[in-house]
Predict the 3D structure of the following.
Amino acid sequence: MNKKEIKVGLLGCGTVGSGVYKILRDNSKSIANKSGANLKVKKVLVRDKEEKLAVKVDKDILTERFEDILEDEDIEIIIEVIGGVNPAKEFVLRSLKGGKSVISANKELIAKYGEEILATADEYGVDFYFEASVGGGIPIISPLKEDLAGNRITKVMGIVNGTTNYILTKMDRERADFNQVLKKAQELGYAEADPTSDIEGYDAAYKLAILASIAFESRVSVEDLHIEGITNISQDDISHAKELGYKIKLLAVGKDNDGLELRVHPTLLPVEHPLAKVDDVFNAIFIEGDAIGEAMFYGPGAGQMPTGSAIVGDVIAAARNIIFDAQGRIPCTCFEQKNVKEQADTQSRFYLRLEVLDNPGVLGDITSLLGKHNVSLESVIQKGRSNGSVPLVLVTHKVKEGDLNDALDKIKKLDDIKKVANIIRVEDY
Ligand code: HSE
């Protein structure tokens, strides 16, 4: 049977765009069998037609004008891999309004404008898919929307940023400091020249906003999240955590527990937790559903071919819908608007590292203030004797964050406390 040819427009041909181009070219036969159509990239939007691309593309199909793609009636699917909000948002909305299905890998755009984009796709009867926006090549959005749709999801917890996972893994294995490892990661191309979005947790926050909106069926925006990065994690924290049986990971945490808890922060994870074993640049998303129980999705969270893999999967789904004249996956699954808890009202266990003067009674003063604020302790490590300050590491039982902060405000004022050097949440397993 002769297959229909579906024409594709590619917006952007950098690392990810060239991966998409290669997969569509090299796996064309298998893709045609699965989608029911021959998929052909008809036009590619680039910034400069003379610029060298990471893949060999016929010069005749390159254009510097988005309108050449938008106005081409043959093109039915548009892939947006430009990144950032401008001009990606305008291009995506105009493409949808032009009756074209759109596939995007753009986490920032979807986290900030997903509601408007999905409503537009719905209004114009086309698809908007974004599997590649979270976890690179790992299938997680489509599983949450389809295969796990029978569940009420109660927890989504992920390592969704490869750069910070690489840095924390190296700090752990090589006993190196944060700045040393960051510099090496930049030299190797694992961290960007401006690493702010990764190391301050914003990249993970965009991904959590997307995941939580889908998992908990309630619109979550980045403003709803409590965000902490990894810049204040020291070698001391990593080695104390190890001594206590934990690894430190940057986690994106979403919980639906009489209201939503949503936060990105470094976390002490018990070494036996499946996420504690996710190292280097790998990503993983751990979920809990009332029917499935626990499940973890693991794999490469970025890169040319893994991200391209997720995008092409979406292109195939969109192509099948075009053939069957249907809209595929349900566009927006935010059916409710759930309350987001104040961070001070959430409960967690905490690791506290203090620098104290080694004077008699100091531990008693601290534990007494903690006790007065309902903070009970699970373990205490006090190191050495010295005339200067000594580290004191405390791990609390589950406490209300507001109570702990009240206690710490008072502890900071004690004469024998030099500083509260770090406060890190501890996740159970
Ligand atoms: N900067 C991201 C990371 C990759 O380090 O995981 C793209 O989402």
